[in-house]
Amino acid sequence: MFGIGIATSAVAVGNRCPWVKAGVGAVTTQHRTDTRAGPIGLELLTMGCSAAETVRVLSETNDFPGERQFAAVDKEGRAAFWSGPEIECLNAGHAGDGCVSTGNFIANTGVPKAMVEAFEASSHLVFAERLLAAVDAGLEAGGETKPIMSAALLIAHRESWPLVDLRIDWAQDPHVELRKLWDFYEPHQERFVKQVLTPSDLTLLADSPMNV
């Protein structure tokens, strides 16, 4: 699986910043977010570029690279990030074993490292919960200097569409609400795959609002 857990003080973070593709990797675009960079980064990874090469191309070809943050994980688990030198707020990034974190407008430069360490230390959890644990750790380490108002969880597995694509927008404590949404969604995720691939195998779930 490839996935991204993310939270910010701005609205609609899940629509702008995280990008994943099954069997290929993950890309984030942050600070003065260039949404165009997400699909470009995934295409570079699809072509066989490493995470480092992908981040380098994104930073070298962007029209305002000094104001951007990019990060990537490739199919080999290699990770890389870029933080532009013109970013005026406190920012940092940290790459770990098959994971990477970047942040801006953060309370201290240790926030991304705390997220990576939490992800690495939670290998006993399912993948989605490792990502959520990393977000929680980043917030506990100081988070952003402003209250976060949106959060998202995006995961690709085997199919061409996301296995998980959950978002909380413009809410107090969106990371808490995101975890509640994940807890509700988890038992249904495989059903939504089956209804695409083998719909005749499905049976109605009694009293479930998810029978669609």
Layout of secondary structure:
Elements: E1 2-8, H1 13-16, E2 18-21, E3 25-30, H2 37-46, H3 51-61, E4 69-74, E5 79-83, E6 91-96, E7 99-104, H4 111-120, H5 127-140, E8 150-156, E9 164-169, H6 174-185, H7 189-197
Antiparallel strand pairs: 1-8, 2-3, 3-4, 4-5, 6-7, 8-9
Helix pairs in contact: 2-3, 4-5, 5-6
Overview of the molecule:
Pfam families: DUF1028. InterPro entries: DUF1028 (IPR010430), Ntn_hydrolases_N (IPR029055). This is DUF1028 domain-containing protein. By secondary structure, this protein is α+β, with helices and mostly antiparallel strands. It is built from seven helices and nine strands. The chain has a single domain, classed as 4-Layer Sandwich (Glutamine Phosphoribosylpyrophosphate, subunit 1, domain 1). A four-stranded antiparallel beta sheet has the order 2-3-4-5. The chain has a three-stranded antiparallel beta sheet with strand order 1-8-9, with helices on one face. Strands 6-7 form a two-stranded antiparallel ribbon. A hairpin with a 2-residue loop joins strand 6 (91-96) and strand 7 (99-104). Helix 2 crosses helix 3 (51-61), helix 4 runs antiparallel to helix 5 and helix 5 (127-140) runs antiparallel to helix 6. The longest helix has 14 residues, at 127-140.
